[in-house]
Specification:
Number of domains: 1
Strand content: under 5%
Structural class: mainly alpha
Distance between the termini: 38 Å
Largest sheet: none
Order of helices and strands: HHHHHHHHHHHHHH
Mean pLDDT: 87
Helix content: 55-70%
Radius of gyration: 22 Å
Low-confidence stretches: 1-15
Shape: globular
Amino acid sequence: MTLSREGERGIAETGRVVSIDVFRGLTISLMIFVNTIGEAGIRNVPLWLKHAPRDVDGMTLPDIVFPGFLFVVGMAIPYAIGARMKRGESMFGIWRHILVRTLSLLVLGVFMVNAEGGYNQEAMMIPVGLWAVLVFVCAILVWNSYPRTESFRRFIFVGLRVLGVAGLAVLFTAYHGEHSRWMGPRWWGILGLIGWAYLIGCVIYVGVSRSLAALIGALGVLTLVNVGVHSGRLELPGVLSFLQGQGGNAAHSILVVAGIIVSQIFLDGEGTASVGARIKRLIYFSAGLFVCGYFLRPVQGISKIQGTATWSLYCGSISVAVFVFLYWVVDILKFRKWSAFVGPAARNPLMAYILFYIIYYFSAWQAFFKLPESIKEGMVGILYAIFFSGLILLVTALLSRLHVRLRL
């Protein structure tokens, strides 16, 4: 592998890795694609385009997509925290940002979960489809990245954010559960799971240690917690009993910490390793994760639905390998034009993700996008999913140009 001088300087001096953005964009694009196949009810598609059942020891493409996003969340943590430290931000400010971001993901995740089911439509004043669309509109008002300005427009932006918070409060009170008056976290949803994994990853990275040895040790601890919870043999003292329910979160956090480790290898604060040497380390790391998953598989099997450590380790290994390939293509060979189509999802991932659900729930409310049964079949359905995913990316790009960019 031949490395240009520009490629060597790219990491050592600027810390900028374009392939991280490409990885993020590809992951979100794939997430929209597999969600379209699942939510649209497209039939007769290959098994590898469907989630593996709970009792099957294996995984498919949809089972790898979410782990890929958790991995890139972890990769971004050292860069984001490092940038805040360079700006002179205090640890109090950094922890405030981490906790606010976590809480935002949990809140939005809970709203999304309760739109999926568990509601009492007859007791609600508005159709649940409209309720969900309004939730996302309020979310955009709250978490939009408004331009920084000192003019009177600043008060307008503050007002829009306050309006969004008030709207979410009203929608919370308007909701009626199937078995209780209020909504609750039946599960945390994809965004909520990301929030917990992000928090655990930050606690390990910021609160414990940023050394590679400590991070690899944390990876081992998370694996042991997951295995212990799934086996039922994890017995902890009362002060640590809260870990008994963290098996699934530990599986997701394994992927986040794996991403942190990859970034730490690339950042290499001492600058003692060449880019080629760092890539070799990543290949060894990917192989190590695979071997650990291989030996652990007989103990608990591969299962995304059950959140096993074996699934996390295999997906982590795949994510590292894919990132190394993307880094070689995008950052070393500078072959980037092909990745332009995932640019909107890379720059505005949350908007692209929730835009899918805005259209989905609007369709459920007004039957606007009701598909003919002939489209929900085989290759025609797959082509529709590809087209719809491209449409989501196009609308995301247009919204980004209008300064509608969600930041948690």
